Amino acid sequence: SYKRTWAVALMIFLILFVGFSRNFLGVHTLEDVLVAIVESGLTLLFSSWFFQHIRGNEKRQDLWTAIGVVVILLSMIWIQFKSYPTEVDEAGKMLADPQDMMKDVFMSFGSMLGFLAGSFWERKRIHFDTSGTVRERIIRSVIGTVVALAMYLGLRKALINLTGVKFGSVVS
After folding, report:
1. What DSSP designation does 122 have?
2. 61: Cβ–Cβ under 8 A, 6 or more apart, which residues?
3. Nearest to 116, CA basis, from 54, 167, 162
4. Torsions phi, psi for 4 (to 5 deg)
5. 3-state secondary structure of 94
6. I need a labelling partner for 154 at 20 to 30 A (CA). Which of 10, 45, 56, 130 fits?
7. What is the CB-side half-sphere exposure of residue 7 using CA atoms within 13 A?
8. In the chain, which residues have pLDDT < 70?
9. Separation between Cα atoms, residue 16 and residue 9, nearest integer Å
């Protein structure tokens, strides 16, 4: 359709514009940008195939949810116990703090676990319905976003103080 063609053209323009801007600003090379575009395209193709493969098959969805949880938990263990280089600059300042890197990674693991748990819970118990008027759907979205953001901002610091940076980052 006409609207879809324009949306696709706009997205392609934005992708190319961001890639150009990364080169222009000197923060990435042309090779970086081209590899990222190819990698993103391949990821989209694989994701599309994968989700079509498991859509509507409850057992496959449950299996892949369990596999995802196990992979994340094993990755958390590996990240926790692997050795990290401690390179320093001329002034003796650490270039990359392993604790900061782990905190960021653990927060990403928490996001992935939250996605898997949320999708599992939705399939089994909630059965979210997208019906309703546009106004009702907007109101639901705004309320859900505000509640989720409030929970994240309100609980994150308390969880980190209570359980430590890594575990608090995962849970928050």
Report:
1. I
2. 54, 119, 123
3. 54
4. -65, -40
5. strand
6. 130
7. 4
8. none
9. 11
> In this structure, how many other beta carbons lie within 10 angstroms of the beta carbon of residue 109?
18
**C-alpha atoms less than 13 angstroms from C-alpha of 143 in its C-beta half-sphere:** 6
pLDDT of the residue at 39: 94
pLDDT for res 59: 93
Q: What is the pLDDT of residue 4?
A: 87
Q: Kindly list the distances between the CA atom of residue 161 and the CA atoms of 27, 79, 94, 154, 172, in Å, as whole numbers in the listed order.
A: 35, 21, 25, 12, 12
> What is the predicted pLDDT for the residue at 6?
92
Burial track 11-50 (b if 16+ CB lie within 10 A, e otherwise): eeeeeeeebeebeeeeebeeeebeeeeeeeeeeeeeeeee
Return the exposure string of 131-170: e unless at least 16 CB atoms fall within 10 Å of the residue's CB, then b. eeeeeeeeeeeeeeeeeeeeeeeeeeeebbeeeebbebbb
Residues, the chain: 172
Query: What gap in Å lies between CA 83 and CA 78, rounded to an integer?
Result: 10
Q: CB of 65 within 8 A of CB of 120?
A: yes
* 26-58 tens-digit pLDDT: 888 999 999 999 999 999 999 999 999 999 899
d(C-alpha 76, C-alpha 103), whole Å: 11
